[in-house]
Each structure stands twice: as C-alpha cells, then as structure tokens.
Amino acid sequence: MRQVRPLRVGSVPYLVGRPLDVGLEHEPGIELVREVPARLVELLRAGELDVALVSSIELFRRPGYRYIPGMAVTGAGHVSSVQLFLRKPIAEVKTIALDPASRTAATLIRVLLAERAGGAPDFVETPAGEDPRQAGTDAWLRIGDPAMRETYEAQAHESFNPSAEWTQRTGLPFVFAPWIVREGVDVSDHLAAFARSRELGRRRLSEFAARGASEWKVPTRAYANYFFEQLDYDPGEVMHRALFAFRDHAARLGLCEADLAPEAAVESGAPRA
C-alpha cells in the first residue's frame, strides 16, 4: 500500500498560538513543530512545512499560497503581545529596532509610521537571538510572551500599540497570523482537525492565562484580559477584508506584492473564496 505522508504543520512557540494549535499533535496524519514566526516562513518556503501559523504578510510575498478561513490570531484594538516600547514620545522617535522574530509586526510598524509628520523613522534589523533593547535606538519592537513580560516589568517603558492604531485608522481587526497553506498542498481532509483544535483551545483559555501569568510573572488578570478580550481566534468573514487591506497598505510601500490575491482553502467540492 502507498504510504501517505503526514501533513507537516508549524506553529509559534508563544502562548498566543495555543488556542489554535492545542491538540493538533494528536490528530491522525499531522506532524506539529513550533518555531518563531520568521523561522516558520523559512521552513514553509523551503517546502519543509505544508501549513504554518505564520505572519500574515507572507501571504502577499509569494504566489500560490492559500489560507484556512475563519481562524487566525487577530486583534481589534490593543494587543499586549505586540508592542513598540519607547524611550521618547512616538512623535520624536527617529530610530526603531525590529524584533527579528516577526515579519508582520515589523511591516505593520512601517505602514503605520510611513506618513508620520517629520518623516518615517529609520529601522534597525536586530540579528536573530539578540535583544532589540540593546540596539541603542529610540524604540524597539517586541512580540510574543516577552512583550507581555516587558509590559509589566518594574521599570517598564511607555509603549505604542500597533494593533490599536491599525483598528483606529481602518475600522478593521488586524490579522497577525493565519494558517498559511503552501502551494500544491491539499488540506481539505484536515480542515476538521484545525476546527477541533480551535474549539478545544476556546475551552482552555483560562488554563493558558494562568500558565502565562505563572511563567512570565505578570498579573493573572493581564493574561485573562489578553485571551478573553484582546484576541479573537474566530474572525469570521471580515478576515478576508482585513488581510487584503493590510496587503494594500504594505504594497504601497513596496513591502509586498499588490497583485497577489490568495484564496481560502476549502473542503473538496466547496466553492472557493
């Protein structure tokens, strides 16, 4: 008999991904690995992953991608795990160190500050494994659980929240990370598994909040607010509109391809978006 290769799925190592990937490693026919978003993109492009919960900007940087609709890491306002920490007021910031772990957050910051009075700041690419705080810039971008921790440190800096700014300007949620499907990969037989994982994740939000508070030494109420109020893992039909709005803003700056229009991955026989 012909051996069917497992679907190779990648997700982020941060708690923010658990409500979408919990239990996937136990689903038949799925292999799950966890890496930072930038590394997931590399593996997806190299064909070493079939599906990845990865930076949304990647959808518009290579042809052939699709995405699983109706489930993603989304925020419609302040999201504590993506923060631009400031050493001076945002209007005076001239240099920003970017967190190497995420390409979407870095692109969003560039979009939001592109037309700022006085011109856009200069951006410093921080090498992988280095702390962007040490770059000596006026501000630094931090993502994931480390951003949550840094928010509640005793000597915490002021911050600018890119998700809140995006929603205020556009009236749309911001899609940080959808499930992106590599070209030529059929996920129709596995869509139910992704849906089951999301439902399981919904039931375990309190557990994830308690774990985050314990691991990162932040108030439990902060992580509870994060999971129950700040994030939305079921963005519904607005997900498509929000993704393409981000594409249009980023493309105007040459940060992605304006003519890429990835479709939703659907069950066999179902109409495509």
Layout of helices and strands:
Blueprint: E1 7-11, H1 18-21, E2 30-34, H2 37-45, E3 51-53, E4 66-75, E5 82-86, E6 95-98, H3 103-113, E7 122-125, E8 139-143, H4 144-151, E9 158-160, H5 162-170, E10 174-181, H6 191-203, H7 205-216, H8 220-230, E11 231-232, H9 238-251, E12 263-264
Parallel strand pairs: 1-2, 1-3, 4-12, 6-7, 6-8
Antiparallel strand pairs: 3-10, 4-10, 4-11, 5-8, 5-9
Helix pairs in contact: 3-5, 7-8
Q: What would you note in describing this structure?
A:
There is one protein chain. The chain is α/β, with parallel strands linked by helices and 273 residues long. It folds into two domains: 7-74 and 174-264, Periplasmic binding protein-like II (D-Maltodextrin-Binding Protein, domain 2); 82-170, Periplasmic binding protein-like II (D-Maltodextrin-Binding Protein, domain 2), CATH 3.40.190. The protein contains nine helices and twelve strands. The strands form two sheets. Strands 1, 2, 3, 4, 10, 11 and 12 form a seven-stranded mixed sheet that branches. The chain has a five-stranded mixed sheet with strand order 7-6-8-5-9. Strand 6 (95-98), helix 3 (103-113) and strand 7 (122-125) form a beta-alpha-beta unit. The radius of gyration is 18 Å and the shape is globular. The protein starts with 6 loop residues before the first strand and ends in a 9-residue tail after the last strand.
CATH topology category name of the largest domain: D-Maltodextrin-Binding Protein, domain 2
CATH class of the largest domain: Alpha Beta
Number of domains: 2
Encode the helix/strand succession as letters. EHEHEEEEHEEHEHEHHHEHE
- Mean pLDDT equals 90
Straight-line distance between termini = 35 Å
The unreliable regions are: 268-273
Rg over C-alpha atoms, rounded to the nearest angstrom:
18 Å
Instruction: Tell me the quaternary state.
Output: single chain
Number of strands: 12
Shape: globular
Global structural class: alpha/beta
Tell me roughly what share of residues is in helical segments. Answer: 25-40%
